[in-house]
Amino acid sequence: MTGRNFFSLLESKWDEKKFLCVGLDPVLGAMPEEVRRESVRETYMRFNRAIIDATKDIVCAYKPNIAFYEAHGDEGMEALRETISYIQGLALDIPVILDAKRADIGNTSALYAEAVFDYLGADAVTVQPYLGSDAIAPFLERKEKGVIVLCRTSNPGSGEIQDVLVEGVPLYQHVARLVTEKWNRNDNCMVVVGATYPEELRMVREIVGTMPILVPGIGTQGGDIEQTVNAGKNARSRGLIISVSRGVIFASEGADFAAAARLKAQDLHDTISKLI
Amino acid sequence: MTGRNFFSLLESKWDEKKFLCVGLDPVLGAMPEEVRRESVRETYMRFNRAIIDATKDIVCAYKPNIAFYEAHGDEGMEALRETISYIQGLALDIPVILDAKRADIGNTSALYAEAVFDYLGADAVTVQPYLGSDAIAPFLERKEKGVIVLCRTSNPGSGEIQDVLVEGVPLYQHVARLVTEKWNRNDNCMVVVGATYPEELRMVREIVGTMPILVPGIGTQGGDIEQTVNAGKNARSRGLIISVSRGVIFASEGADFAAAARLKAQDLHDTISKLI
Fold first, then answer.
1. Is A63 at the interface with chain B, CB within 8 A?
2. Is A211 in contact with A191 (CB distance < 8 Å)?
3. Are residues A241 and A214 in contact, defined by beta-carbon separation less than 8 angstroms?
4. Choosing among A41, A75, A104, which should be mutated to test the B contact, i.e. which has the most B CBs within 10 A?
5. Over the stretch A115-166, which tens digit does the pLDDT of each residue have?
6. How far is Cα A138 from Cα B266, in angstroms, rounded to an integer?
C-alpha cells in the first residue's frame, strides 16, 4: 500500500465525476440467504464482495463502519480487514474510509492510529473533536491519510451539543473553523456534516473553503440529495463525498441484492452527476 | 455474569474504602522479559494476570483501554476479553470499566453497546458526548451498566473544545449539567474529569451532586492526588474512581514488575484512604 495517498485517489475519482460513497455496514439478520455461511467472516465477505463488484465502477470511496464488524469479535474484524484489502486490491484505486469516530489522549490515540491505518490499512478515518487536537495528532501526522472530523452529525440529537452557542455561533461552526484554521496544517483534514441538515452544510461549506466534506444521511435517514449537492459542493464543483449505506446495500434482501444495490447506486450516481 | 450491577459492585468497594482503579494498558515494548511469549495474547495475559493478582485486594475497579488491545488485532482483542473474564471470575466482585470512548448514530451505537457489554462483557464504558444523547442511548438503556461520559479530559489540549464558553459557562460544565439533568434517567451515568484539572473537578462535583466521577491523570500525566480527592469527593466522602495506569503497571519493567506495581498501588491506596 506504499504510495497510496487518500487525497490523490479521491481527486482522481472526482475527475471521473464520481461522488457516491457506499457504506459497507453488513447486518447479520439482513443477509440474503445466498451469502449465508457458517462463519460470520465468510458471510460478510461474500456479501461485501458482491456489493463491491456491483458498484466499484461508479463510487468515489467505500466506507465500512467498524462497529458493524467489532460486534462480531475476531471474525468480524477479520472480515473488515479482508474487505479493505479486497477493495485496495481491485486496481481501481478506490480509497477506503474507516468510520470509527475515534479519539483519545496522546499515547492511546497513537495506538488507534496504528490499528486503523497499519493493522486495518484504511486510507482515511473519522474522528471525534471533543478531546481537542492533541487527541487526534497521531492521525493528523499521517499526511497521506484523510482525517475526517465530526462537525455536524446526521442524527436527530446532534444539536444537543453541536448547536450550543459559542459567542453567538453554533459549536459545530466553531469546530469547522478550528479544523480549517488550526488542525489542517498537513492539509489532510475533512469534516462530516449530515445530509439531514442542508442549511448547516451550507454554513460549513462557507467556513471550510474547498475542503472535502463527508456527507452521510441520504436515504434511510431522510437527507435530500439535491439540497445536499447545492449546499455542499465547493467552488470547483467538487469537495463532496456523499455516503449512503443501508439505502444501497439493503436495496433488496433477496437473491437480487447485488443487482438491486447496483440499480440504486447507479440512480444516485446519475442524480448527483446531473446536479453537480 | 447475570446479576452483575456496576453500581452495586462499586458501592461495595467504596464500603471497603477502596477508590483506586488500575488501568490495564499493556505496551508490547515495555513488557518484562519474564512474561514475554511468542504470542501477544499470551504475553499480555501473563502480564495482566500478574498485575491483577498483585493488586486485586486494594482496587475498586480495573480499567483496560481497548486501544491497547485493538492495535494488536485479533490476538489483542482475545487478550482483552480474557482479561475481563479473568477479573470477573475472581470472586472478588471487582467491576471492569472499558475505556473505549465510543459513540455513533443510533443503529451503529447499538452495535458498539453489544460489542462492549455482550461480546467483551464490560461492566461500564466511557463514551463521547459530542453526538448527543441519542448516540449513546443504547448504552444508557442498560441500567445495570455504567455509562461514563467524557466531560473534562486530562490531556493538555482538552480546553480547545471543552472550555469554549456557552452562555458564559465552559462547555464541559454544560455537558456535566446535561448528563446530570437529562441523560441520567436510568441513574447509570458518570462523568470523566482529568486529575490534571482540579479546579474544573471541583466545579463538576458541584454540578453532578453525588454522581460518581472517573478521574484519570494521576501520576505520569501530573495530576495531584490530594487536590483530586479534596476537589472530587462527594458529600458522602465517596463518588471517586481514581484511575492510574502507567504509574502502577510500569512501576518497574524488571522481573519485580508485579511487586513494584503492588507497592505503588498500596502507596496510592493508603494516601487516598487517609485523605478521603
1. no
2. yes
3. yes
4. A104
5. 999 999 999 999 999 999 999 999 999 999 999 999 999 999 999 999 999 9
6. 34
Q: Does domain A6-275 have CATH number 3.40.50.920?
A: no
Nearest to A28 by CA among A14, A8, A17, A42: A42
Instruction: For chain B, give every domain's residue range.
Output: 6-275
CB contact under 8 A, A128 and B65: no
Residue B64: φ, ψ to 5°:
-75, 140
Q: B190: which 3 cell numbers? A: 458518570
Instruction: Report the predicted TM-score, pTM, of the whole model to 2 decimal places.
Output: 0.96
CB A80 within 8 A of CB A118: no
How far lies B242's CA from each of A8, A125, A255, B9, B14, in Å? Answer: 46, 32, 54, 16, 12
B197-234: pLDDT as tens digits: 999 999 999 999 999 999 998 887 788 999 999 999 99
Whether B135 and A155 lie within 8 Å, measured CB to CB: yes
In the numeric block, the cell 484539572 is attached to B197
> CA-CA distance, A134 to B186, in Å (whole number)?
33
Distance from CA of A86 to the nearest CA of B (A): 18
Residue length, chain B?
Answer: 276
A56 is catalytic: no
Torsion of CA A28, A34, A38, A39, to 10 degrees: -50
